[in-house]
Every structure is written in structure tokens, then in C-alpha cells.
Amino acid sequence: MKVTIKNLTKKFASRDKNGEPVIAVNNLTAEFESGKLIALLGPSGCGKSTMLNMLSGILPVTSGKIYFDDTDVTDLTPDKREVGLVFQNYALYPHMTVLQNICFPLKIKKVPKDERIARAKKIARMVHIDEYLNRLPKELSGGQQQRVAIARALVKNPKLLLLDEPLSNLDAKLRLEMREEIRRIQRESGVTTVFVTHDQEEATSISDYIVLMKLGVMQQFSATRDIYNNPANLFVADFIGNPTINQLHGEYTSSGFKPDGTDEIIPIKADVAEGTRTILAARAESVTFNKGENGISAKVNDMYSSGKDWLLNIDIGNNNLRGYCDADYELIPDEIIKVQFKDKGVFLFDEKSGERYC
């Protein structure tokens, strides 16, 4: 099912420091393709959970429209939207077995007992919990409880599956395993899925598209790889990627970018006025090193092993940055080396507004 959001806004009665109503989601417009997994991503307080709750019908909208395919569902109650919702704490019924938990939504709809048990067992096999059907939630691990919650949401054959921070209560190893499982389950079920997270690694690892939000405003809505390779502004470039993108402060000249603290120039062409304060942002993998004459001078601070590579910490003028080099490359602290930048993964932003120039 395709989901279309038009000029969606949510204001709360509470006031900000200027006495204005708090705007949790501000005039957001997007279209989610049928059968895709979309991540709502951003820092705490950006409006992503509010957005999810408006899609589910739990929260009424202040203005704007929500369409499921061509049907306007803006004013429909949650029970009429045909959505499945998995909460952060899973919200399983502790006195019911796994089978009873999965069956419960069908029991409410008065689905015959034989049919609801058959459907529950089918979904349980899909999410790999069919051997735990007679257990109580307290007898399950966190990952198993999460699978039960997903199975309970899917057993209704929802048109839209909504997941609100489903991995936040799991340890690191289980988080990795379960995000892969969520992707597998979503692909097997084919249901359009919206997944809320503040973790950019989670979002980029399993989603088809990402909606990145900041203070209620959508910063970028793009395919997962595109949001990394083509950030719309400095906030997006800084939020997506690990390690965090390097940021060199300086000014733009007719010859290129001049970092603060040095008279050397990094060649880059952009339609920017001479002397404009800018930030050259570069992914760590876009920084290359040599001991020759080509490039801009940098001082080595430290080296950290990352398996087959070194992660170098260096200074260019008054700017600090990181980049990878081969583990066989021999460097020592305080050594002066030359640094160059690849075309891909290097961007120029306005220092004040974060607007992208190139």
C-alpha cells in the first residue's frame, strides 16, 4: 500500500520559550512506495514518533492529509486504518501464551478459533518463534518477545506496519541480529513498513528510504544510499555516516577552499563569492595520504587500528580530521604528510546556514 502525506502538521498546546505552540511536525510532505521499508530518523525531539502516531491514528493531525493509496484516512480512528503497530516495550500480555498473544487481535475481530490459530502459527513460522507458542512472555528473551510483537501486528494482515524504536531495549549483539530479522520479515510479508529510530546505523542498514527530521522539519527524504552520497545540507551530512564526516572551516577563494590556520588551498569549484565562510566536509574514506609533493600539508596526531586499515587523526591548519590509510603505511606522530581529497564524498557548505554549494 502506498502512503501519501501532504502538508502534515502537528501542534501541541504546550508552549516553547517564545510562548508559541510547540510544532512537533511542520508541513511535511512525502510519498512512501508500496512494499518498501521507510525509516523515520532523527535526534530526540525531532518529531519522528509524533509522525508515526499520526500515521496510526493515535494522534489527530493539526492540519494536512494522510492517504492510504487513494483513501483519505486523516480522520479515521486507529481500528479503521488497518495498521499494525509494534511499540518500544512490545506491550505483550504477560498472562497469555505466545500463541494467545498472537491470536488476540483476531479474537477481538471475532475470527473463528480454528482460523485464527492457523493464521497465528503461519506467522509464527515466518518470524521463527513457532517452537515457543506455549511459553509466556517472561520465559522469552528480548529478541523473542520482539518477534512475538511483530507477529501479533502482522497476523491482522495490515496494510501498513509501524515500528516505534523496536530495537532500543536490546543489547548490541541482539540489535544487530534483530534488525536483519526485521528486514527479512518485511521482505517476506511485503507489507509497507515505517520504522522509527534515532540510530543512523540501524536506519541505513535495513531501510529502502530514509526520512531525516530535525525539529519537526524534514531535512531530506531519499533512498538510503543517496542520503549518504548526496546530503541536502550540513545537518544531513553530519548526522549520516560513521565515523562522523570531517568538517574543515575556512573561506572560499577563486582558487578553491582555504582552511583556517594555513595559506594552502584545497582545489574545489563552486558558485560561491570570494571570501565566503564555508565548511569543506569530507567522508573519512574520501581522504587520501601520501609522502610526496601533491596535496595539502597535515600533521599526524595519532593512528588507530581498524583491522586492515589505520584510522589517522590529523591536523590541517586549525582543523582536525580523520581518514583511512593502509595498515602497511608507516607513520609516526607529528610527522608532516600530504593530504588529498577524492571527488566523491566531499562537499562544500555555507558555514552559517548549512546550505550545500557543491
Could you explain the architecture of this structure?
The protein is α+β, with helices and mostly antiparallel strands. 23% of the residues lie in helices and 35% in strands. The chain contains eight helices and 19 strands. The protein has helices at 48-56, 98-108, 113-126, 142-154, 172-189, 200-206, 224-229, 234-239; strands at residues 3-15, 21-32, 37-41, 63-68, 71-72, 83-86, 160-164, 192-197, 209-214, 217-223, 246-253, 256-259, 277-282, 287-290, 296-305, 309-316, 319-326, 336-341, 346-350. The strands form four sheets. A six-stranded mixed β-sheet has the order 6-7-8-3-9-10, sandwiched between helices. A five-stranded antiparallel β-sheet has the order 14-18-15-16-17, with no helix packed on it. A four-stranded antiparallel β-sheet has the order 2-1-4-5. Strand 15 and strand 16 form a beta hairpin. Helix 2 runs parallel beside helix 4 and helix 3 (113-126) crosses helix 4. The protein is elongated, with a radius of gyration of 25 Å. It starts with a strand and ends in an 8-residue tail after the last strand.
